[in-house]
Write a structure and sequence with these properties.
Two copies of one chain form a homodimer.
Chain A (H helix, E strand, L loop, with lengths): L1 H29 L7 E2 L9 H8 L12 E3 L1 H4 L21 H4 L4 E4 L6 H22 L7 E3 L5 E6 L2 E2 L4 E3 L4 E2 L7 E6 L3 E5 L1 E3 L3 E3 L5 E6 L2 H8 L2 E5 L5 E10 L2 E10 L17 H4 E7 L3 H14 L4 E6 L12 E5 L6 H10 L5 E4 L4 E2 L6 H10 L4 E7 L5 E2 L4 E5 L7 E6 L4 E3 L2 E7 L6 E4 H7 L12 H5 L6 E11 L12 H10 L11 H7 L3 E6 L1
Parallel strand pairs in A: 6-16, 17-18, 17-20, 18-19, 22-29, 25-30
Antiparallel strand pairs in A: 3-30, 5-8, 7-14, 9-13, 9-15, 10-14, 12-13, 15-16, 20-28, 21-29, 22-23, 22-28, 24-25, 26-27, 27-29
């Protein structure tokens, strides 16, 4: 009996021990390891700090309103007006070939992409989406800050940066004041806390570790030594923002921003062995095809004559896809008729080399198609993309250089987009090359930059410069006229009957207006990019 | 005879006229319409202006070196050290399930992805590519500028911006000097020219239209009125850069930057009619599949139960692709085994709606998979991506929240990457949601942001957080635990024999080491992202 009791007792004790261990472990595991703060990331308009700015700008001197001045038209005329006007050039010679020799600028109001019945609704939706975009892209870094004159405060106006939730010393702080009994400076921040990395003799610190900190001393050198140890720690997480810090002393104030963001992580590519440019290791050729397998095969054969091992990526949205195969060929099948830019986006999304070369499926490589020259330009300059030249059967060679500029319009209406056949500068060291904004559909580019800009899959049919418009501000574009690819003829010779596939091609390539107006070129410029007008020559 | 002579005369005259017209037209057409300047866009190290800065910072007070201070460890310890050390946590309890309950931090030196034989060459190539990256991403906007104390000059320290090749008035300029006989200020720029939009009485302007301009007056109010008309015109084209302007008066100087760049062009999406969230208009479901058509069909069937018309984009790199069809299904065929992230990149490259929902091909939608909740979060906050929760057959539900931070390392070695199972804050207004850096493979995101970050097609097999690492600084990430999708079981039940396709799947999903080391997870972190170490728990 005793034995039995002993065993059941041991069992109970064991059970109790196991139970308590489990309980303790569960408790430890669920024990809140830190108190989590909340963060407000809801979309709302700009920060309150902007009001301080208007208060702080000195009132224009009363007397200045009586001072005479004369407008300088040559400069005043260059300044942005209140809104942009959608107009081209009128008049001009009305001869045959006039448009060819003296191309006139035509203007296109973009709201015309929509029926009158749907325009009101589209405007409303666009305004709502635009508002959200503005709230998300606003940053204190773009706010106008003016430095007060005769301010005894010395402080950094630019270049102070901290990684999210990390700590830095704020550089360049000092006070160069007139002699006083007591010197006081204070700091205010909103997305982080202030502190001191060391405590200096003779200086009193209040509010260290908080969003408002005061330093006081009767000895100026000591206060300045303390100012060399002021730290900032970001506490409210955001991947890319800035804190506006107010720095004050008696009778004077200053404002500066601390950028809070991750440093840009590089996206480097393996380039292959040292020495000459190894085109196969550096370049992938990308193209889109639709119903033109014969032309596509001509392209591939011509490429292989000069670059036998370079990878060719082919996006294909033909109705009954044929097999396209061979070494270093990657063939992607898409839903039928998915579209031109969707196919371009697909092809570039698959590239794993440092550079990609875009070609149309009806190009032919020749001895003049020296990719090494284009690689050399991108290896040696800060350009992201360099176009070449396309030669027609007639011998006419085009580089299709375009400059693109945006003129600010009224907020409700949108900006005006201006495209011109032109370029900006010739590139030093590369006399056959220029800097521009858009080029022809034959170009070498940094893969990471092209993938970052992307080809909008909403553009199903005819589109070209939309890629460069989307790339404005991020792509540094060049164009060289000494690297040439041939274009298999497009001239419809009257005695050659159109093949069935040619007919289908024409139907898709030059289709009637799409049903979804926001997916047409002009509808997209209006809605997606918030433009009101397009002018070009 | 005369008649004959008249006709040949007329002919000659006619020919002469035609010839001259052609000549004139040709001349006009080829007449240089403007003199093109050259621009130097070759890659080279930072600008000379940096030297001015070191000269201008006031010398630290001699006496300050004798002032005593005491380090505050709690703050000093948070500052970046000279380089990062690749170490995890050592020791700790060595019980079973210890790693599960108390996950320890492990450290992985990333150079180990390479054989000793190729490491030297890889380091050299990486350094060369990194150098090019640094030269291309450097901008005067990040340079440290310190405002001089007691400077009679008033000037803008932030927020001055001009579009490329355009003109602006420089705001906030003034001189608050002591009385003098003659007041002089001058400006120096490098990427554009200075001018005045109006000429004020009593002020002499020299160098207007050039890169160095001087304003002189004996009347201070007049000089200040003139300073309200100072303009800057960018003349050297670059899509995104900044000009550092030097502003001086006798005995004092100041520096400020003018950003030269295109404004960010919005990429807005049509959202469908007003009212409740129209999921089909707002969301596209994207997934990648490989040899699991049965699971894929289960996913599609479960989606259709709740969202009959939402588009599903499927990237498929199976060896013998089967047809997957149905309304609103887009099926893309890739080269066999092209890879996991290549497939993800392909799928997202095809999305034309405002949001995309990523799902794995073995998920199952349930009544708890309320996409409207996720859409609500992205519509109402500044988040770019919000993850949900994935529920295993056992009932265990995971959100896989990860924080990612980068610690600066020595330049030659690279930075240290730290990942922890954690989050930053709870989101105000959304008590089930938090802000973090990485989430599980079930998330709703802004299409334009995901396309901009991209899934690197070099990652062929196992990869997940690499997307969030590439997205650091651009993606604002959240995670909500109240939107749940089920995971079709992965538990290998011993009595169920593996099908052939299961076996092939396992072979590709968990493969032996790849031949190209830079295309492995660690090799890519080392080479592409320039990291030296990864720590995680």
């Amino acid at each position: 009996m005793e034995f039995f009791r002993m065993r059941s007792l041991r069992k109970t004790v064991l059970l109790a021990i196991v139970a308590s261990v489990v309980l303790v472990v569960a408790l430890l595991h669920s024990w809140p390891t830190r108190a989590y703060t909340t963060v407000d990331v809801r979309q709302r308009p700009g920060p309150i700090v902007e009001r301080h700015l208007e208060e702080r700008l000195p009132e224009p001197d009363q007397r200045s309103t009586n001072i005479a001045y004369r407008l300088k038209e040559s400069v005043a005329g260059l300044l942005a007006r209140n809104g942009c006007v959608c107009e081209g050039e009128s008049g001009g010679v009305n001869l045959p070939f006039a448009q060819l020799l003296f191309p006139r600028v035509s203007a296109h109001p973009l709201h015309t992409a929509f029926d009158a019945s749907e325009l009101e609704e589209m405007k409303r939706r666009r305004a709502k989406e635009y508002q959200g975009f503005q709230m998300r892209s606003q940053t204190p870094v773009d706010m106008l800050i003016v430095a007060e004159a005769n301010n005894p405060l010395q402080y950094p106006t630019q270049g102070v940066e901290v990684r999210p939730l990390k700590t830095i010393l704020i550089p360049g702080l000092a006070l160069q004041d007139l002699p006083r009994e007591l010197y006081t400076v204070n700091f205010t921040s909103t997305l982080g806390v202030l502190n001191v990395a060391a405590e200096v003799e003779g200086v009193k610190v209040k509010g260290d570790g908080e969003m408002h900190m005061t330093l006081m001393s009767s000895l100026l050198p000591n206060l300045n030594r303390q100012l060399q140890f002021v730290s900032y720690t970001n506490t409210l997480f955001h991947p890319s923002t800035a804190d506006t810090v107010q720095f004050e002393t008696e009778g004077h104030q200053a404002m500066f921003t601390i950028k809070i963001r991750h440093r840009v992580t590089p996206k480097l590519y393996n380039t292959g062995p040292k020495g000459e440019y190894n085109i196969s290791a550096l370049v992938t050729i990308a193209t889109k095809t639709f119903l033109r397998y014969d032309k596509l095969q001509d392209l591939i054969d011509s490429v292989r004559r000069y670059y036998p091992t370079v990878t060719i990526v082919i996006a294909d949205d033909s109705e009954n896809p044929k097999t396209v195969s061979g070494p270093y060929i990657e063939h992607y099948i898409m839903p039928f008729g998915k579209g031109w830019f969707a196919g371009r986006n697909l092809a570039v999304s698959q590239v794993t080399t440092k550079y990609l070369l875009w070609v149309d499926d009806d190009f032919i490589f020749t001895a003049n198609t020296k990719l090494e020259k284009l690689v050399d330009v991108l290896e040696k300059t800060t350009l992201d993309l360099v176009g070449g030249a396309v030669r027609e059967a007639t011998g006419y060679t085009a580089t299709y250089r375009q400059t693109i500029s945006i003129e600010q319009g009224e907020e409700e209406e949108g900006d005006c987009l201006h495209m011109r056949r032109a370029f900006h500068h010739i590139i030093q060291g590369f006399p056959n090359c220029v800097v521009t904004d858009g080029v022809i559909n034959f170009f070498l580019a940094r893969t990471d930059k092209v993938q970052q800009v992307g080809f909008d899959p909403r553009l199903a049919r005819v589109a070209h410069l939309e890629f460069f418009i989307d790339g404005l501000g991020s792509l540094h574009v060049g164009s060289c006229d000494d690297v040439i690819v041939n274009h298999a003829t497009k001239i419809k010779l009257p005695w050659v009957s159109q093949s069935e596939s040619d007919k289908t091609y024409a139907k898709f390539r030059y289709p009637p207006a799409s049903s979804d107006a926001t997916h047409t070129k002009n509808g997209l410029l209006y809605f997606k990019n918030h433009f009101q007008c397009l002018t070009h020559n």
